[in-house]
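User: I'm preparing a small set of examples for a lab meeting where we compare how different chains pack in three dimensions. I only have the primary sequence for this one, and I'd like the structure in token form so I can line it up with the others. Please keep the answer compact; I'll paste it straight into my notes.
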Amino acid sequence: MEGIINFHHDLMFFLIMITVFVCWMLFRVITLFDEKKNKIPSTVVHGATIEIIWTSIPALILLTVAVPSFALLYSMDEVIDPIITLKVIGSQWYWSYKYSDNLKFSDEPLIFDSYMVQEDDLAIGQFKLLKVNNRVVVPTNSHIKVLITASNVLHSWAIPSLGIKLNACPGRLNQTSMFIKREGVFYGQCSEICGVNHGFMPIVVEAVSLEDYLIWLKNKINFDFNA
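Assistant: Understood. Below is the structure token output for the 227-residue chain.
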């Protein structure tokens, strides 16, 4: 996500410069090339130099933008030695999560479902349509591989603040990665129309320190297996 933000800032520089230049040229043309000021219009219809300039400069700008854009595009698909593999399964109309790397706490994967909390069950201060009964908890400053699929229809696992949006397709396993630098709670929703309750599939990812993550993982496994 940090790379996307930095690229956006760099791209905005070029957009602002181009916008200012185009507006300045329009103003100059409107004010200077007036019939009252120029009774005899210009008859110049060809200029090799100016044509080379207005062709080469936009081409250079596009190349300058394209190089980091492609580098960022490929880096977003790169997964670097993940310490956790999280499998996300979209269903109508909830998410299921599977943690495969449970360290020494269990030989079995940790699997749980995440449903939206109904409005009548919300406490004061909780977000409507975003509160879930089970959050995804991940450690900060750790490479996490995310595998996404669906059990019935097409879904989309999207968390805008993390720069993640990937389709969950039945019969197909899509892959992305997460690397969260700070602790916090990040919200998202299903971004692919999947039926009547499409708008009621929130996603909540909580990033905690590695120590807190290990405590949560141990307690979660013990609770699920003892239930």
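A couple of notes for your slides: Strands lie at 84-91, 94-99, 110-114, 136-139, 144-150, 155-159, 164-168, 174-178, 184-190, 202-208. The chain is about 35% helix and 25% strand.

User: Perfect, thanks.
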